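SAMPLE LOG
Freezer: B-3
Tube label: C17
Construct: single chain, 223 aa
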Amino acid sequence: MEELQDDPDSEPLIVYDAGRVMLRLLFLVGIAVALLVAVLPALRRAPAGRLAFQRGSAISAIFTPEVQYWAADINRWAQAYGVDADMVATIMQIESCGHPTIASPAGAQGLFQVMPFHFESGENPLDPETNARRSLDFLIYLLRETGGNTALTFAGYNGGPGAALGNPQFWANETRDYYHWSTTIYADAKAGVQPSPALQAWLDAGGSGLCRLAAAQLQILSD
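STRUCTURE (predicted):
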């Protein structure tokens, strides 16, 4: 930038050097791009010890055949939302064992047993894509509210946000059971423990009946 002054009594006339200004702008843009490249990986990385926001390419082999039936969809849904596919598979395992049209006495429906108030007017709760979308909307909300704490998120998926953020001493028995099964099955999935003692215990506690219904619905064989 240069100052030209024809008359000593006149105000300075500012003349901009377009080439010099352009060089400065390019320099600043280069710095911004370099910072962005350096920071993005850190922003995308999950906090230490937190597995909730990792993107996996496949679900663990520990899950039952009925859940494995949906493996490609689970991975696609998980990647779309940026959550761990094994967490999604754990919820499906406990909620429906892969049964797409099952409903609970409380009114929860479909693969992820989503309550009616999560759906918008005109949506089909039993459509797998719609059911998964509303389930993962709620899952993402819980993960954010708990700061990525998978254990509390599992509790909240069953007992609602109050359970996720409240005192575990006041959890309903169903939520306590859900917390136990989900966290232990998920831990086995992440550790690659096969066969999974936690999953087998869940099956022995009554989950096998749910999986038989799912197998019949899916027309696949299960042990």
